[in-house]
Design goal:
heterodimer; A: mainly alpha; Cytochrome C Oxidase, Chain A; 2 domains; 15 helices; B: Helix Hairpins; Immunoglobulin-like; Cytochrome Bc1 Complex, Chain D, domain 2; 3 domains; five-stranded mixed β-sheet; 10 helices; binds copper (II) ion
């Protein structure tokens, strides 16, 4: 109740806070509560997926099968990807959207609060199904998160669990996305035109459309797997007149937009943080919006670049190569805009800004190796090697996950009303940034020197870089405990945060008290 | 002010270049040695084209990287509040934005030209001198020399196979080509345009020898084409590059390129001996009667266990309990009592199920071993199966 006491000044009618106890969390339709639930869930999954990554790096520390059976190793690589993508990164972004979209556009809550509750609670249900497979006879899915048939059809009892888990997670993200679209299009405060919205809101609007467009495609693909397995169809079975490559086309028609689903909200976050700490408006706002939209459009016509080695007609190879290379143009625009925002600013380097700058640099490394991978003839060498593993971890860990950490440090004072421990935040940043590069940079070399991905054991010449990479991995994993500690400490107390929190912060959320009351903007603010 | 920004970017670029040049020179000899950093130049015209393109785009992205990172680090150093920097108010410049949209586009065009040329070259599989059909299996390769009457399986070599077990009797570090050596390498002539027809029997694999410059997926029901013309005699190693189940990491590829006359001689020997030729012609190979002698049951169990752990365990499970649609073997009366049936299932497979025929994949001793093993492990008890029994069932 005490949290809401500040709120009465713009609230004529009876003001009510959250109900006490567990029911608050089970039945809540409040966007802030659901935002918290999403983010806590994502944090737990980050550690579950991280533990799997530790198993992988421990097995690869030296040649030989030292710890686990190859079959279990394959379960770890597969589950690590599924957990991190669908359990950690996507829910974290959805949680941020829940917390921030309404208060950034001056809306009282999400447009569809009950859908919001259901969308969240499907997530734990889906993950119970998915994680349960680890204890089934035959083990968890081990055919890679890409689920290519015919290999995936060799999966044992876990198979239907995997399919239904994917369905449930898909329904959850579709509902979450519809809600975000509905909120942004209908609940903006008077004067908050589309081209005045913060870029985080723009990024999520576009991301939500991507999710609504491609999640059903994934659901369709896995349903076809299901009927192939149990109902005698032959969608993907060559012996029955089907086509195993068809699955890959459908999967990547989902999969490539999915990659941008995992990165567009990050662009929005960084576009909020850099101007704040550079104390200078974002450079090229409208080109940022157009660049995001172009990337989203291109994401639908580049899926073939995951399949250059599958055997496509020359014209197909060339089309997908050119389309993929084009992605570099709008992505470059974004990076240059962030640079220009810092140029002639007046910068300070609190933890959110450090993570944001590291994001720009390290994401660019991932982007540049992406340009290399776009070239079909050389991709025939890079494909399915550790070069690709390095590429997408630069984009997803130092890209998506660094942006999420930046966001947490940036908005934590607004959420809790307390400043986080800056010294611990800096420790977390420097340990993470150094170790993540020790972890992933050598993987470029491993891939170029010929190490395939998804192998539990390797030829002797790969030993040194694997050892270095594993050490980086262990340090990175341990460093994340600091992150958890900073969050717990900040929730418990600390120096009180002001309403604006950061000197350079601009936007509606910074006009609210810290912590933001349980209900906000019940009377819409007027945006000039 | 905007001109200054562009000027500063250019200056930073010029400063950073030699730095990258020093950092990224990777001598070719690093290939297949510890601390290898880069793609191999390879031994075909294609692989060299691919390498050249790789290095071109590598240098371009390095230069772009230096410019971008230089710009960021310069800003971080120069425009600090603690240094008294006062924030500017500007937030837009059409000129600058057009420049950094158009220039990257032009760079991409510049890269696209050689990339397209190389792709066209890779795709052209016409005018070949000979054809090798490559078939991926879980977990080995089969090579068929079309029109030459030579075909054989190629599997992980015995030393690597011993060292890759858990608690091995040989350390991986003591095996010379650990995990990248095979029992029967693919032997081909140099300076011959070889067409590869690539397919698979069970799941998707990918055939990749970096020194030939490409990899190609091996897909059941599809035949992919690729080609190579190797310029130098030598041994070139690669691996399966598409996840294909438990032993995906253990199906290496070795290509031995010989001078034309040596290749002809090798081919002749293959036809004569047929020793490595798989079992279609097994009846003719009566020279190899040695394997048909009675083998000690303990030895059979030992051989069998190794085969079981590599080939059967993923479906039939560690305790022979099976799972889902894969039948349990432990406690199965039919496995113990019906000798003819169990031998037939293992040798010839069961059509319409995941149980493939192991006859073509394993020799008589290994088959007898694994049959003996499944009939005597996990509390099962039955007479050992001898290589001769298996031979009769082929
Ligand atoms: Cu394979």
């Amino acid at each position: 109740m005490s949290a809401t006491s500040h709120d009465t000044h713009h609230d004529d009618h009876h003001d009510h806070g959250p109900p006490p106890g567990i029911t608050r969390w089970l039945f809540t339709t409040n966007h802030k509560d659901l935002g918290v639930l999403y983010m806590v869930f994502a944090l737990i999954m980050f550690f579950v997926g991280g533990a799997m990554a530790m198993v992988i790096r421990a097995e690869l520390f030296q040649p030989g099968l030292n710890l686990v059976d190859p079959h279990f190793f394959n379960q770890m690589t597969t589950m690590h990807a599924l957990v991190m993508i669908f359990g950690a990164v996507m829910p974290a972004f959805t949680g941020l959207a829940n917390w921030l979209v309404p208060i950034q556009i001056g809306a009282p809550d999400m447009a569809l609060p009950r859908v919001n509750n259901w969308a969240f609670w499907l997530l734990p249900a889906g993950f119970v199904l998915l994680l349960l497979t680890l204890f089934l006879p035959g083990g968890a899915p081990a055919g890679g998160w890409t689920m290519y048939p015919p290999l995936i059809l060799q999966l044992g009892d876990a198979f239907p669990f995997l399919i239904f888990a994917v369905h449930i997670l898909g329904i959850s993200s579709i509902m979450g996305s519809i809600n975000i679209v509905a909120t942004i299009l209908n609940l903006r405060a008077p004067g908050m035109t589309l081209m005045k919205m913060p870029l985080f809101v723009w990024a999520w609007l576009i991301t939500a459309f991507l999710i609504v467009a491609v999640m059903p495609v994934l659901a369709g693909a896995v349903t076809m797997l299901l009927t192939d397995q149990y109902f005698g169809t032959s969608f993907f079975n060559a012996a029955g007149g089907g086509d195993p490559v068809l699955f890959q086309h459908i999967f990547w028609f989902f999969g490539h937009p999915e990659v941008y689903i995992l990165i567009l909200p990050a662009f929005g976050i960084v576009s909020a943080i850099i101007p704040t700490f550079a104390r200078k408006p974002l450079f090229g706002y409208s080109s940022m919006v157009y660049a995001t939209a172009s990337i989203a459009f291109l994401s639908f016509i580049v899926w073939g670049h995951h399949m250059f080695s599958v055997g496509m007609p020359l014209s197909g190879q060339l089309f997908f190569m050119y389309a993929t290379m084009l992605v570099a143009v709008p992505t470059g625009v974004k990076i240059f805009n962030w640079m220009a925002t810092m140029w002639q600013g007046s910068m300070t380097f609190e933890t959110p800004m450090l993570f944001a700058i590291a994001f720009v640099i390290l994401f660019t490394i991932g982007g540049l190796s992406g340009v290399m991978l776009a070239l079909a003839p050389v991709d025939l060498q890079y494909h399915d090697t550790y070069f690709v593993v390095a590429h997408f971890h630069y984009v997803l860990v130092t890209g998506a996950i660094f942006s999420i950490m930046a966001a947490v440090y940036y908005w934590l004072p607004k959420w809790t009303g307390n400043m986080y421990d800056e010294r611990l935040g800096q420790w977390h940043f420097w340990l993470s940034t150094i170790s993540v590069n020790v972890l992933f940079f050598p993987q470029h070399f491993l891939g170029l020197a010929g190490m395939p991905r998804r192998i539990p054991d390797y030829a002797l010449q790969f030993t040194d870089f694997n050892m270095i990479s594993s050490i980086g991995g262990f340090v990175f994993g341990l460093s994340q405990l600091i992150f958890v500690w900073v969050i717990i400490k900040c929730v418990r107390g600390g120096e009180k945060a002001s309403d604006q929190v950061w000197e350079g912060a601009k936007g509606l959320e910074w006009t609210l008290p810290s912590p933001a009351p349980y209900h906000t903007f019940e009377q819409p603010p007027v945006v000039k | 002010m905007k001109r200054k920004l562009l000027g500063a970017l250019a200056a930073i670029g010029a400063l950073g270049l030699p730095l990258v040049a020093a950092a990224a020179t990777a001598p070719e000899s690093d290939w297949r040695r510890p601390w290898g950093l880069n793609l191999p130049r390879g031994v075909t015209e294609l692989s060299q084209d691919v390498y050249t393109l790789h290095m071109l785009v590598f240098w371009i992205v390095c230069i772009i990287g230096v410019l971008v990172f230089g710009g960021i680090f310069y800003s971080v150093w120069k425009f600090r509040k603690s240094q008294g920097a006062v924030p500017a108010k500007w937030h837009h410049s059409t000129t600058v934005e057009v420049v950094w949209t158009v220039i990257p586009f032009l760079i991409l065009l510049f890269i696209a030209v050689p990339a397209t040329q190389t792709m066209i070259k890779i795709d052209d599989t016409s005018d070949y001198d000979m054809t090798v059909k490559v078939t991926g299996y879980q977990w080995m390769w089969e090579y068929e020399y079309l029109d030459e009457d030579v075909a054989f399986f190629s599997r992980l070599d015995r030393d690597s196979d011993r060292a890759r077990q858990r608690n091995p009797d040989v350390r991986p570090q003591d095996v010379e080509h650990y995990l990248i050596d095979v029992d029967n390498p693919l032997v081909v002539p140099v300076n011959t345009r070889i067409r590869f027809l690539i397919t698979a029997n069970d799941v998707i694999h990918a055939w990749w020898v970096p020194e030939l410059g490409w990899k190609k997926d091996a897909i059941p029901g599809f035949i992919n084409e690729a080609w190579a013309e190797i310029q130098e005699p030598g041994t070139y190693r690669g691996q399966c590059a598409e996840l294909c189940g438990r032993d995906h990491g253990f199906m290496p590829i070795v290509v031995v390129a010989l001078a034309q006359e040596d290749y002809e001689q090798w081919l002749q020997e293959q036809r004569e001996e047929n020793g490595v030729v798989a079992t279609d012609d097994a009846e003719e190979a009566d020279v190899e009667t040695a394997v048909l002698e009675e083998v000690d049951p303990d030895e059979l169990m030992q051989v069998g266990r190794q085969v079981y752990d590599n080939q059967c365990i993923a479906c039939h499970q560690a305790e022979g309990q099976g799972m889902a649609t894969f039948p349990g073997l432990a406690g199965s009366d039919r496995v113990m009592d019906d000798d003819d049936w169990v031998i037939d299932v293992v040798v010839n497979g069961v059509s319409g199920t995941a149980m493939t025929a192991f006859g073509p994949r394993l020799d008589d001793r290994e088959l007898a071993g694994v049959l003996t093993y499944i009939r005597n492990a996990w509390g099962n008890e039955a007479e050992p199966i001898q290589p001769a029994d298996v031979r009769d069932a082929r």
